[in-house]
Amino acid sequence: MELNKELLNGLLKQASESERLRAAYDLRTSNNDGSQRMLNALQPGTIVPIHRHPTTVETVIIVKGAVTEVYFDNEGKETNRIVLDAAKGSYGLQIPVGQWHTVEVAEPCVILEIKDGVYAPVAPEDMMNI
């Protein structure tokens, strides 16, 4: 499979037509693949709740566009902002296990997300309501 401009533009189009303003593309090669690898197209205005992953690091690589990762402490206070923008040479980061985070999307973007283990929805206790 080739990850090319047509694929990314198609994902961004799907995201723009989605109620959530997001579209994901699973990169696993089979259902037996125990990893989480996906492209995630994000449009401005999408809401990604503040959440954490209690058992895995999350690797985020910007493929197209720009996005800001925002970190929070346990009380919901913002602690850090990291802009990922391939055009400016800021390509990605690894979000530590248990780190509260969200994203802010200023322009249409596609990110590669990688996590350990099989996909499981974020549990209610791992979402922050502030």
Q: What structural keywords apply?
A:
single chain; 130 residues; mainly beta; 5-stranded antiparallel beta sheet; 3-stranded antiparallel beta sheet
Describe the structure.
- This protein is mainly beta and 130 residues long.
- The protein contains one helix and eight strands, in the order αββββββββ.
- The strands form two sheets. Strands 1-2-8-3-6 form a five-stranded antiparallel β-sheet.
- Strand 4 and strand 5 form a beta hairpin.
- The chain starts with a helix and ends in a 15-residue tail after the last strand.
- The mean pLDDT is 95.
The gist of it:
With 130 residues, the protein is mostly beta strands. It has one helix and eight strands, in the order αββββββββ. β4 and β5 (78-85) form a beta hairpin.
Rg from alpha-carbon coordinates: 14 Å
Tell me, briefly, the overall form.
globular
Largest sheet: 5 strands, antiparallel
Strand percentage lies at 35-45%
Low-confidence stretches: none
Strand tally is: 8
Total of helices: 1
N to C succession of SSEs: HEEEEEEEE
Q: Taking strands numbered 1, 2, ... along the chain, how are they ordered across the largest sheet?
A: 1-2-8-3-6
Q: Would you tell me the overall average pLDDT?
A: 95
Alpha-carbon distance between the two ends: 41 Å
Helix content: 10-25%
Task: List the topology elements.
Elements lengths: L4 H13 L4 E5 L9 E7 L15 E7 L1 E7 L5 E8 L6 E4 L4 E5 L4 E7 L15
Antiparallel strand pairs: 1-2, 2-8, 3-6, 3-8, 4-5, 4-7
